[in-house]
Amino acid sequence: MGDLKIIDLYYDDHKTNKTSFLNNTRSSLNISTDIKKVETSFEWLDLMEDTVKYIDNIFRNPNRFIINEEEIVKVELARRVTVESIRHLAKHTNMIQKIEDNGDVKPSKILNINKDESYDTYENRLIYTLVNNMANFVELKKKTLVNGSSYKDIKKAEYHAKSKVGKEQISMEFYYTSSLIDKEEEQGELSIEERVKRLEDDIKMLQSEETYKLLHKAHVAKVIPPIKKTNVILKNTNFQYAMKLWDYLQAHTDDDTKIVKSKKDYEDNGILKEYINNTFLMDYVAMNTLSNVKSKEDKDRAVEEITDNLIQRIVELNTDLDMEQLKKKIGDKIAITRFKREASLSEIENVFSTSIKAYLERIENIDLG
Fold first, then answer.
1. 280 within 8 A of 29, measured Cβ to Cβ
2. Average pLDDT over the chain, rounded to whole?
3. Model pTM?
């Protein structure tokens, strides 16, 4: 069985036939491409999911301070008499109604101090603002939510060609389609939509915390950058994780999903059409092998011609290659191809040798008596 070589296919009895073929070729190549590349990151989702528990810790153990509300009231309305009340009365003797014979002092009015806890601290307002920012960010992402990065590349080509060599009329047409759709697979048990829904539930849980509700009811002012680096914010582990999320949200105010689309329909008259015209020629030459007989001299000429054409194509497509690089690339390819061919022939010989040996052994064991 002889090898099928490109030399045999490219050869033609009359070199002028190939020139005539290409000169007489009339072809059209219509191309359609539809490319869409989506790059998205769910770093925000990972970060929020990881930070929820630390925000919950802060709301369960919030910073607070005592507020003293002072007011002068009638003595019978005073809730309690404190050391501060006595000191105040000693400085304001005009509020003493009378002094009993036994030395007891009877005031008409007295200072009343109401002590109350307040959660309106800078740190609490910072986390309150962060939770609201999280809710707004998720709402923004939901409007343009995509499930993951993806790549779509669909190509279509329609080629029609006719040519003439002497009295011979040749025509060819083909339709080419290529479809590549690559979608990043979701990791984990839950889909992106399910994770976003779960995150929304977690944010609602944070908003139902008593600390959040008290701050919301008090209409506290939201914190705006730059952030004050208090000791609590710098040293508390829960706040360190919360600030990592804060910084991320501040740096990603816009939707960072990147979508690149390219859709074209056009008639190609460039190098692609030239390549396919040469393919048309190769098909013509291949069909001619049904009737042509080639000599060694003819094959040698064809080898030289094909080599020249291939080198010309390599140089055209790699204009930055110097002579040494070109030699090395061609030399490497020749060595690899020869090795593959020799290896393949050796494997085939081994298979045939084993099969023939087994066949002969079976014949020897046949009893013809």
1. no
2. 80
3. 0.54
